[in-house]
Design goal:
Number of strands of chain B: 0
Number of strands of chain A: 0
CATH class of the largest domain in chain A: Mainly Alpha
Number of helices of chain A: 13
Main location (chain A): membrane
Strand content of chain B: under 5%
Structural class of chain B: mainly alpha
Number of helices of chain B: 18
GO cellular component, one term (chain A): plasma membrane
Order of helices and strands of chain A: HHHHHHHHHHHHH
Oligomer: heterodimer
Helix content of chain B: over 70%
Subcellular location (chain A): Cell membrane
Distance between the termini of chain B: 38 Å
Largest interface: A-B, 95 and 97 residues
Shape of chain B: globular
Largest sheet of chain B: none
InterPro entries (chain A): MetI-like, MetI-like_sf
Number of domains of chain A: 2
GO biological process, one term (chain A): transmembrane transport
CATH architecture of the largest domain in chain A: Orthogonal Bundle
Structural class of chain A: mainly alpha
CATH topology of the largest domain in chain A: MetI-like fold
């Protein structure tokens, strides 16, 4: 059936609108990228629009010369790796029993878990608890209180319920396998896709989080990258990095901008590199969650 | 005990259909003992990190004294709530919280739906992939970087936006310190960051619509717009309803993280919300009881909103959370 004129108009409008939206989203990110490798002077004068001008890496140089920042990068890496490992084990431990119809008490436990999604004690009682547990300013405060996400438990439970055939599990039981063996040998190997999704969701969460660090950490040696980024990007604290010997105020102002552009790129580097490869997994995760609604 | 039922009980994942004796009931619990062992840390986690704070929320009705602990401190009833309601900041905080929440709902709810409906109409899979890849990307920026970008682009001295305004003959605007701009910047930067990601769930729903409906509509002479309106939109209505309930339930639960980062002394009158107030008076000012009361007030209102909206949805016969 040939498309009518009206339909073609609609299609063209949609293409134009979507192109505009895509441009609106990508241009700021693209600009930061080219600005980070251009001479700060050219950026300041507004000459950088479509491609970098007078290649310069001054922002990156200043950034990497800052040892505190590298410390933050390392901290974040540690929090992300250890935190994600804990998340994964705990989420499996929560989701698998809940996925089994013959797990007595599952309705009660599910309610107990989901209720925390809609009601919480709030910031202050949680803070006092963490303080009383002696977890302030420790490594563990960054990984234990965030050990489980209710939403991710639900995604994984749905996957276990819908994608692992019951017959396989029953057969394993008849062959005399224990529950532990069943999980390790059969369920987990069949769940690689959802495990990948979980790793990604949790890892991105740890990488990007700043709030628990802001609340619970006061020791700069333990600060994650995001807190240093907050100082650089939002509070504009970078006296150490902008050299005092720089003769004019304008000069140091420009360097400060260059450092900011470089900081954005450096912070998001792992995501920017991995994103194209991981995109389909992320989307799968959202879809699995959507099944439950 | 009939043998058939025993065999049945051995298989996991099946409900017992016959009425069981006490012994059998006990066996149901004990045969999966390993599952309970595995589940134990999960229960411990939720009790410690979620239910203990709920127990600790009682300090909202007490005068918290550090060396007497939560249970030992004396009860004072609604003193802290009354202080909050009477305080000079109460109107300002509530107004900001409600206005930002509703503004966010009005912009953040429909835009992902429109985006998904448009993406769904794209025939070229290359273009479609391109639009999706691009619009999902900002979702992965951290709040800190997101706010950092906003500050950079809107900077009155070196920001791109102001350069453009000047290029078109306008006056530089100091966006971040002008209270009047705060709410729009907050909401629209949020839309920029999340519209793509939020559209995924609608795209999934759209993919599940029976193509025969479209064929039938075509035969009846419906054009594209008509089919979007009469086939696609009703097709994703249940998903829309669920997300609307969730969104309304969190209207007053404005993310602390972003507001806090965008806040500065100059835009405070437009940016102070419940959560940032709790942080300031509680964590920074150490008025634990008072700020716990403010936080509890917020949680209760959120909870009531969610339950009410869900009830209305259920009464109206549309899909609901429970």
């Amino acid at each position: 059936m040939a498309e009518s004129r009206g339909d073609r108009m609609v299609a063209v409008t949609i293409y134009v609108l979507l192109s505009f939206i895509a441009l609106l989203v990508i241009y700021p990110l693209f600009f930061v990228m080219i600005a980070s490798i251009s001479s700060p002077e050219m950026v300041m004068r507004g000459e950088v629009w479509l491609w970098p001008k007078e290649l310069s890496f001054v922002g990156y140089e200043r950034l990497f010369a800052n040892s505190e920042l590298m410390r933050g990068y390392l901290n974040t890496l540690l929090y992300t790796v250890v935190g994600t490992a804990i998340n994964l084990v705990m989420t499996i431990a929560a989701a698998y029993p809940l996925s089994r119809q013959d797990f007595r008490g599952r309705n009660f436990f599910t309610f107990m878990i989901v209720f925390t999604m809609f009601f919480s004690g709030g910031m202050i009682p949680t803070y006092l608890l963490i303080r009383d547990l002696g977890m302030l300013n420790t490594f563990w405060v960054m990984v234990i209180p965030s050990a489980l996400s209710v939403w991710n438990i639900l995604i994984m439970r749905t996957f276990f319920q819908n994608s692992i055939p019951k017959e396989v599990q029953e057969a394993a039981f008849i062959d005399g396998a224990s529950n532990t063996k069943l999980i390790l040998r059969i369920v987990l190997p069949l769940s690689i896709p959802v495990l990948a999704v979980m790793v990604l969701f949790y890892a991105v969460g740890h990488w990007n989080s700043y709030f628990s660090a802001l609340l619970y950490l006061s020791d700069r040696d333990r600060y994650p990258l995001q807190l240093f980024m907050r100082e650089i990007l939002i509070q504009g604290q970078m006296q150490e990095m902008v050299e005092i010997s720089d003769d004019s105020l304008a000069r140091s102002l420009m360097d400060a901008e260059a450092i900011k552009y470089a900081a954005v790129i450096v912070t998001n580097l792992p995501m920017l590199l991995l994103y194209p490869f991981l995109q389909k997994y992320f989307i799968k995760g959202v879809m699995v969650g959507a099944v439950k609604g | 005990m009939e043998p058939r039922a025993v065999l049945k009980n051995k298989a996991p994942g099946q409900d017992i259909q016959t009425k069981t004796s006490f012994k059998k009931e006990l066996r149901q619990w004990t045969k999966n003992w390993e599952l309970y062992v595995i589940f134990l840390p999960v229960i411990a986690y939720f009790i410690i990190f979620h239910y203990l704070p709920m127990y600790g929320v009682q300090i909202a009705f007490k005068d918290f004294i550090a060396n007497q602990g939560i249970t030992g401190s004396p009860w004072v009833g609604f003193k802290h709530f009354e202080r909050f309601f009477d305080s000079y900041y109460f109107t300002r905080i509530m107004e900001n919280t409600i206005v930002i929440g509703l503004y966010e709902l009005a912009a953040g709810f429909p835009i992902p739906i429109i985006l998904a409906l448009m993406i769904h109409e794209v025939r070229s899979s290359k273009f479609r992939r391109f639009v999706q890849t691009v619009t999902y990307m900002p979702h992965f920026l951290s709040t800190v970087v997101m706010v950092g970008l906003v500050v950079m682009f809107l900077s009155p001295v070196s920001g791109l936006v102001n350069s453009m305004i000047v290029a078109f003959g306008g006056e530089r605007i100091s966006f971040m310190t002008e209270p009047g701009w705060f709410k729009s910047i907050f909401v629209w930067s949020g839309v920029w960051q999340t519209m793509g990601w939020s559209s995924i769930i609608y795209l999934a729903a759209l993919a599940g619509i029976d193509p025969q409906l479209h064929e039938a509509a075509k035969v009846d002479g419906a054009g594209r717009l008509k089919r979007i309106w009469h086939v696609n939109l009703p097709g994703i209505a249940p998903t829309m309803m669920i997300l609307l309930i969730l969104n309304i339930g969190s209207v007053l639960g404005i993310g602390f993280e972003k507001v806090f980062l965008m806040q500065n002394p100059l835009n405070m009158e437009a940016s102070d919300v419940i959560a940032t107030n709790v942080y300031r008076s509680g964590i920074l000012g150490a008025q634990y009881s008072f700020s716990a009361a403010v936080g509890l007030f917020n949680s209760i209102i959120n909870f009531i909103l969610l339950v009410t909206v869900n009830r209305i949805a259920r009464k109206a016969g549309s899909s609901s959370l429970w």
